[in-house]
Amino acid sequence: MMGKVTFYEDRNFQGRSYECMSDCADMSSYMSRCHSCRVESGCWMMYDRPNYMGNQYFFRRGDYADYMSMFGMSECIRSCRMIPMVTFFEDRNFQGRSYECMGDCADMHSYMSRCHSCRVDSGCWMMYDHPNYMGNQYFFRRGEYADYMSMFGMSNCIRSCRMIPMHRGSYRMRIYERENFMGQMHEMMDDCENIMDRYRMSHCQSCHVMDGHWLMYEQPHYRGKMLYFRPGEYRSFSNMGGMRFMSMRRIMDSWY
After folding, report:
1. Repeat: present as a keyword of the record (predicted)?
2. pLDDT band for position 253 (50/70/90)?
3. Superfamily of domain 4-83
4. How many whole angstroms separate alpha carbon 137 and alpha carbon 128?
5. What distance in Å separates the CA atoms of residue 50 and residue 54, rounded to the nearest whole number?
6. Taking the mean position of all CA atoms in its chain, how far away is CA 252?
């Protein structure tokens, strides 16, 4: 589910309303004033000037019947931007010390010695079981992970994380049978459960991601170890643990 916030002209959720599910640079395009709002999902940064300017105010899921009084604001919201957020907890079931993260983190040890559960409030994230975005990769989308190590069969807890930017538009990737973009080539624009069934390729060893963000898996039907690929050229998978990918899927904006 994507982020969603409903704005109302008057306090206590009265008057005309506007449902927003993405960044909005100028609220005046939809309503002349806004004095209350209801954040149904996601985390948002609100601004008292258009184009994400002026004072900033952080809103998370909840009802804001009179946010101007609550935050001591002199101007109402004029623009808004959805932001990614994940909360990590030391122990399972969201217990122990916590750390709220709103962007890439190369070393979780800077904030907590261990992490055994997390809550993804908004965004899509790649988690790694070693610092500096190394080791095995795991994809997390919006939801609660009370014991993610058991869920994903992990032997080590999360040590670093990377936020995956939302992509809207077309998806395009070329996969190659051999390294350095050699051998059989196929251009993909949608998910593929099994490259052997679709293309008669036993494996692929290089790729060029032109549009969108993708997950690639070592086994058919999106199983086994995975790696995250953003736009760029990947001439050889040999330096990625020698993985041979058999299925791949797009990271869709509807997952945010």
Report:
1. yes
2. confident
3. Crystallins (2.60.20.10)
4. 5
5. 8
6. 10
